[in-house]
Amino acid sequence: MRMTATLGINQIISHGFGLFLFAALVPLMQTSIEISHWHLATIGALTQLAYLAGAMLLGLIGHHVNSGRLLLVTGSITTLLLFSMSMLNDPMVITLVLTVMAASAAISWGGIVELITRYGRPENCATNLATASSGTAWGYGLNGMLILLVIPLFGWRSGWILAGALGAATLLLTLSLLRSLKQRHENHLAEESSAALSPLQLFSTIVRERTAFCACLICFLVGASAMPFSTWLNTYLAELALPPALGGYTWTVTGLTGMAAGFLIGKLADRRGHGQALLVVFGGFALSLLALAYSPEKFAAVAGFGYGLMYFPMWGIIAGWVSKQYGSKATMQINGIGMVTFGLGGALGNLVAGAVRESSGSLEGVYVMITGLAIMLACAAGYICLTEREPKPLFRPTFCLNMGMLR
Predict the structure, then answer these.
(1) What are the protein's UniProt keywords (predicted)?
(2) 137-190 pLDDT, tens per residue?
(3) CB contact at 8 A, 229 and 366
(4) Which residues contact 177 (CB under 8 A, 6 or more apart)?
(5) I need a labelling partner for 209 at 20 to 30 A (CA). Which of 76, 128, 153, 169 fits?
(6) Cβ of 35: how many Cβ atoms within 10 Å?
(7) Whether the Cβ atoms of residue 201 and residue 307 lie closer than 8 Å to each other
(8) CA distance 216 to 202
(9) Residues 377 and 225 sit within 8 Å (Cβ to Cβ)
C-alpha cells in the first residue's frame, strides 16, 4: 500500500499539477500577465505534442533506463518547474515550461507502471495501477482547494509555490520508497533487462499480438471520445442555454468519482477479471452519454459521473491487463505506445468535433459521435470479457519474439 500511495502522489504532481494546474489558474494569471488566446492555443498544441513525444520516447528507449531514476529525474524537473512558474511573467517562457512538464508527465506515468508491475503483488496489480492512475483525479480536487482556500489569501503565485513544495515532499517519499524496494528486491536487475523489447519487436508485438493491439486500440478510442467530451462539454451546455453552475457541478462529480473509482474498479479487475472491469467503466460511460443525449439538463452530472468512472481508472486497468502477458519493461513500452495512440485519438477527435461544430453550427452531432465511440468501447470490453480466458491471440504471429520470456 505504501508503494501505491507514493506513486499515486507522484501522479498528482506530474499530471494533477504539471498538466492541469495551469488550466485552473490561467484566468487569475491573466490579470497580471498578458496571456492571449493565441498563447493558450499554442500551449494546448505544444503540450499535447510534448506528451506524445514523451510517451513515444518512453516506448522506444525507456527500457534502457532504471524506472526509479526515471521517476526521480522527472519528479525533480517537474518540482523545479512548478516553483519557477511562480516567478515567470513572459508567456513564451511559460509555454516552454508547460511543454517540458507535459513530456515529463508522460514519462513519469511509464515509470509508475513499470515499478508497480515489477514490485507489486500480481494479485493486486490492477488495484495498485488503477489507484495510482486516479491520482490525476485527486490532483483535480487539490487544484480546486488551492483556488478556494489558498489563492484568495496569497495570490495565484502561491498556488505554484505550494504545488512545488508538495513536489519536493513527494521526491523525498519516492526516494525513501525506492531505497526500501532496492533492499527487498536485489535480484530484479537481470529480469528487467531480459524482458524488454527492441523497437522492432515492440511495433511487431503491437500489430500482431491480441493483448497489445487491443490495448492500443482502446487507448485510441478513449482519446477520440474522452478528449472531445472534456474539451467541449461546457461549451455544449452553454449552447443549450443551461446555467454555468451546471458545468461546475458536473466536473465536481467527475473528480469525486475518479477519486473513488481507481481503487474500486481496480479491486473489481483483480477479483473478477480485467474484461469485466473494462465492461463496467466503458458500459457506464456509454450509458451516461445516452442519458446526456436524452436530456442534457437532467443528466449532465450523470455524464460527468460516467466520464470519471471511465477515464481515471482506465489507465491502470489497461496496464494491469497488459502486465498479465508481458514483463514489466515490455508493459511499460506497450503502455507508452498506448499513450501515443491516445493522444492521436484525442487530436483526431477534437479536429472532427471542430469540423462538425463549424459545419452544423451545433455540438449535438459531436456528442452523438462521442456516444457512438463509447458504445464501441463497451463492445471492445465485452469482447475482452468473453475471450479473457482464451489463450489464442487475435492474430496468428508469423514470427517469434522469444515470448517465453514475455508471457
Answers:
(1) Membrane, Transmembrane, Transmembrane helix
(2) 998 888 888 888 898 899 999 999 999 999 999 999 999 999 888 776 654 444
(3) no
(4) 2, 3, 6, 7
(5) 128
(6) 18
(7) no
(8) 12
(9) yes
pLDDT tens, position by position, 349-381:
888 888 888 888 888 999 999 999 999 999 999
Question: What grid cell was written down for 254?
Answer: 467527475
Q: Where in the chain is the domain with CATH 1.20.1250.20?
A: 1-194, 197-407
> What Å distances lie between residue 112 and 5, 71, 81, 245, 330, CA to CA?
11, 7, 20, 36, 13
Task: Tell me whether residue 336 is exposed, middle or buried, using C-beta atoms within 10 angstroms of its C-beta: 0 to 12, 13 to 18, 19 or more.
Answer: buried
Q: Which of 134, 384, 353, 135 is nearest to 283 (CA)?
A: 384
Residue with grid cell 514490485, as numbered in its chain: 119
C-alpha cell at 406: 514475455
Mean residue pLDDT across the chain = 86
Radius of gyration of the chain (CA): 21
Q: Where on the phi/psi map is residue 365: left (φ > 0), alpha (ψ -120 to 50), or beta?
A: alpha
Asked whether the beta carbons of 46 and 54 are under 8 A apart, the reply is: no
- Integer Cα distance of 296 and 288 in angstroms: 10
> Where do we find the cell 459521473?
305
User: Which residue's C-alpha cell is 516567478?
Assistant: 87
Question: Which CATH fold topology does 1-194 show?
Answer: Growth Hormone; Chain: A; (1.20.1250)
Written as nine digits, the cell of 291 is 442519458
Question: Euclidean distance between the first and final Cα of the chain, in Å?
Answer: 26
CB 208 within 8 A of CB 397: yes
Whether 16 and 135 have beta carbons less than 8 Å apart is answered as: yes
